[in-house]
Write a structure and sequence with these properties.
It is a single chain. With about 550 residues, the chain is an alpha/beta fold. It folds into three domains: about 20-95, no CATH class; about 130-210 and about 250-265, Immunoglobulin-like, CATH 2.60.40; about 290-300 and about 325-555, Rossmann fold, CATH 3.40.50.1110. It has helices at about 25-45, 55-95, 100-105, 115-120, 225-235, 275-280, 320-325, 340-350, 380-390, 395-410, 430, 435-450, 450-455, 485-505, 510-515, 535-545; strands at about 10-15, 20, 135-140, 145-155, 170-175, 180, 180-185, 190-195, 200-210, 250-255, 265, 290-295, 300, 305, 330-335, 360-365, 420-425, 460-465, 505-510, 550-555. A seven-stranded mixed sheet has the order 16-15-17-18-19-12-20, with helices on both faces. Strands 5, 6, 9, 10 and 11 form a five-stranded antiparallel sheet that branches. Helix 1 packs antiparallel against helix 2 (about 55-95), helix 10 runs parallel beside helix 12 (about 435-450) and helix 12 (about 435-450) packs parallel to helix 14 (about 485-505).
Length: about 550
């Protein structure tokens, strides 16, 4: 027997026979109804009052009506304010989580590499995105201090709407400030770009599509690095070695279908952005957080970097530092690829931290050599071959990890807790390694760093410096460019950042500021001087600050 729900006293039946509960007035609605009743009753009694008394009661009624109206208006304002704050928190955590959510980045493409598989799932050449027919489908432009959004709808060259993802877009809001947007691939041909714009005024949207149809994620074969190493060492003796062909690189500046610029107006607001940021930064509970010495969150105003957080806007006075640091610290060691070498050279020269032992007794940088480029056999090449043996997939792992081990074992002062190692792995490795190889390298590196005290007796502090973004200006190397894409750089950076955060290392994040700079890079990798001085000040301030100020615990996922 089927149970039937009978209507109760507090229920009604609509025309379709469905039972639903009667709606009960909310407290605000009940208050409004009572207010109207009071006004009507008061007005009725006012009719019978003497004329000389009427003005006083009229004033009372008028004041009461104003009070009711103001209270209702304040309630509406509070409701709107709460909606704005909730939306801000939602977009803020979406932006931060995208920095470490490498798994979500792989959803549109997976591990698709072969042309056969790409055709089978609909990623054939016929579905390539056209910059001329794609357009901005929707814009949600908020006042300053809130997140603004645009939605890009992609189409093919013949005007068909795409129903697959796999494109990599870089979106810049350029105006009173230069802000790099966070782009989400929804996997259905639609791309959402969000950015926190805190400076009012008119902005131009610069949208660039680097690769389409998941070509930005095209991976080298596991033996690709070995093949390149043979190319550098043995090509003079084995000229028959064949290298992979280089596909045509697509790098488009994108606009509306009629090639006009997209301009938006961000209106001025009285919102307290610092109050909002303090709230989201201290969000509890937090399921995923990072220990940041520099979050890199902010915008470029001309050639000056302005962090969103005022607490990260450090200006150092060397004269004050001389008074504060009476005993020089031990060693500052910066290790990484050529991008980190250029960072170290500018840092040491610009700040003069090691001149006359102002802060550090020793300042050293080391560039990791992943190739030995001697054209003829010599002592160094022979030593290199004897040390690492035959060319293999494992070779690059040993080179990278040995350089870190040697710092802890042999460098002066690195056994002292007053020393610092700034480590950067490795923008150039994205050219040669598969993503699986990169993950293994990061895990082995973490083991070395965690065991540095037990294995090498080193008490030096370690800071992980993130990858820099691919610059959207400048030339590029034709051969390595086939795998050195903005998507792979972001993917590798997101995985490394997520693992370093889980392990508890202090993070020095320069990716966001490098992604939006107009100063640019010479070759899309090596940035010109003047991009990172503010980050350099932050590094010095962090190391010299008190313990309770050293790091900012940023919540990435509530």
């Amino acid at each position: 027997m089927k149970w039937l729900r009978q209507p109760s006293v507090s229920s009604s039946i609509n025309q379709e026979g469905m039972v639903y509960k009667r709606q009960i007035l909310s407290p605000r609605g009940l208050f409004a109804v009572l207010s109207v009743v009071v006004v009507i009753v008061t007005s009725y009694f006012m009719i019978s009052l003497p004329v000389n008394v009427l003005p006083n009661y009229s004033a009372i009624v008028r004041n009461y009506i104003n009070y009711v109206g103001n209270k209702t208006r304040v309630g509406n304002i509070k409701g709107e304010y709460n909606i704005i704050e909730r939306e801000f928190q939602k977009q803020w955590f979406r932006m931060l989580q995208a920095r470490i959510d490498w798994e979500r980045m792989l959803i549109p493409c997976g591990y698709v590499n072969s042309a056969k598989n790409k055709t089978l799932i609909g990623f054939g050449k016929i579905n390539e995105t056209s910059k001329g027919t794609s357009f901005v489908e929707y814009m949600d432009i908020r006042p300053a201090g809130q997140f603004s959004r645009i939605f890009i709808r992609t189409r093919t060259k013949d005007g068909r709407y795409k129903e697959i993802g796999g494109d990599f877009w870089m979106v810049i809001f350029s105006g009173p400030a230069n802000v790099s947007a966070t782009v989400f691939d929804h996997g259905n041909g639609s791309y959402e770009a969000i950015a926190l714009l805190v400076d009012p005024g008119y902005y131009t949207i610069i949208a660039i599509i680097e690769r389409s149809l998941c070509e930005g994620y095209r991976e080298p074969k596991p033996s690709f690095y070995s093949l390149l190493l043979k190319r550098n060492h043995i090509q003079h003796y084995f000229p028959s070695e064949k290298m992979p062909s280089v596909p045509v690189r697509r790098f488009y500046v994108w606009g509306r279908t009629n090639n006009t610029k997209i301009r938006i107006n961000v209106k001025k607001s009285q919102d307290d952005i610092q109050k909002r940021l303090r709230f989201v930064l201290g969000h509890q509970p937090c399921s995923n957080s990072c220990r940041m010495i520099w979050s890199g969150l902010g915008r470029w105003i001309g050639k000056d970097w302005k962090p969103y957080l005022q607490s990260e806007d450090h200006v150092l006075d060397l004269n004050q530092l001389k008074k504060k640091v009476r005993t020089p610290l031990e060693s500052l060691y910066i290790i990484g690829d050529s991008t980190n070498r250029m960072f170290a050279q500018e840092y040491f020269h610009l700040k003069g931290l090691c001149h006359d032992k102002l802060i550090w007794k020793r300042c050293t940088w080391q560039q990791q050599k992943i190739f030995r480029r001697e054209k003829t056999p010599n002592f160094q090449a022979v030593e290199f071959a004897e040390r690492y043996g035959n060319v293999s997939e494992r070779l690059i792992f040993d080179i990278a990890l040995d350089s870190v081990r040697n710092v802890f074992q042999t460098e002066d002062g690195m056994n002292n807790s007053r020393s610092l190692l700034v480590l950067h792995y490795n923008t150039h490795l994205a050219k040669y390694l598969t993503f699986s190889q990169w993950k293994r390298l990061i895990h082995e590196l973490i083991v070395v760093l965690k065991e540095r005290r037990r294995l090498f007796g080193s008490q030096a502090q370690v800071v992980w410096k993130t990858m820099t973004a691919i610059g959207y200006t400048g030339a590029f190397y034709q051969f390595e460019g086939m795998y050195h894409t903005a998507f792979r750089i972001r993917l590798f950076a997101a995985y490394a950042l997520s693992q370093m955060c889980k392990t508890g290392f202090d993070i020095y994040d320069v990716y966001p500021m490098s992604a939006s700079t107009l100063i640019g890079a010479r070759d899309r990798v090596h940035f010109h001087n003047g991009v990172f001085p503010k980050a350099m000040d932050a590094l010095t301030w962090w190391y010299l600050s008190d313990d309770n100020q050293k790091t900012l615990n940023i919540c990435f996922q509530p």
